[in-house]
Amino acid sequence: MVPLQRTKLFDGRLKLWFEFQKVHYTFDEDKKQFRSFELDTNKPMKYFQESKGLETDEAIVEAKQDLGDNHMEMVIPQFMELFK
């Protein structure tokens, strides 16, 4: 079991989410299920090449609330743990 987290978003909504095996799952109100972020791979490459990124502070805050910070954590085991 993993604990459910609740985060109040800047627009007043409540975000229900959890993290499992380093994957972030958010509750989708419309589909009534938890979903991980999915990139739309059906868009043409030109769409991504012409992207200007997030242009307002509000868009940045919203993206961080939806997706989290863009960081990776790597746990390096102690040498002896590799032999257990």
From TrEMBL:
| Name recorded for this polypeptide | Transposase
